[in-house]
Amino acid sequence: MPAHFCKILEKISIDLEVLEIGDCKCLPDDFPMYLKKLINLRSLRLINCHGRWDKFAMEYFSAIRSLKKLKNLELVNIVFNQCVKEQLEQCDGITGLLIIPAIYLLELANNNCHLLHCLEKLSKTLKHVVLGITHGVLQIGNLYNVHKVKNHHNLGYIMGGETRKCEDCIPILRSKILQPDPLDLRHRVTHKDKAVDVQILTVSFLQYWLNSMMVNTKCKVIKIHCSEHDQMYLSEHFNDL
């Protein structure tokens, strides 16, 4: 990232309507301050929102909310933790949203839960949503699925459906019951000798659930290769943004 990057942005802030940042973890600490000056920005795309970026996530979202003309937001390879959830939920001026969650093994089920709760919170204002699920996330989800099959008898839980096929498993921490919630999505896994509720969703069911919950929003759930996460754009999937 050029040292004079922010100064360049400041000079063109009056006219800039579309901005894409290819590696947010390399941005200077004071970048959110400059972002606020892009008052005519209509579309913002941020890639690799993790690492150093996490430290300034609140400042970034504060800047995003200050941009009154901003309608389309794309967050690519983002760790969707509690802080991101709470901040993004307040961005009710955004009408088009693309999210591709980063692979974060230890908190994957929890982060996926944060993401779905956030989308539910924004369902009244979002008009277009693209959720990109990488094959890396699905492979980790398959580990949950295999663990479920191996341990469900010991846990005393009877599954109501067949095992999910490989690379079609999305683990979600069950902090609340998703509606509709078929019986064959319920199971338990064991983590650190403590029973933790986790449900496995297929990609097709996640699409169905989003359509049911976000009735006024056009939603797409798309499986992508990890190497392609920075090649997916919101505008490729909707022509009425």
Automatic annotation (TrEMBL):
Domain of life of the native organism: Eukaryota
Name of the featured protein: Leucine-rich repeat domain, L domain-like
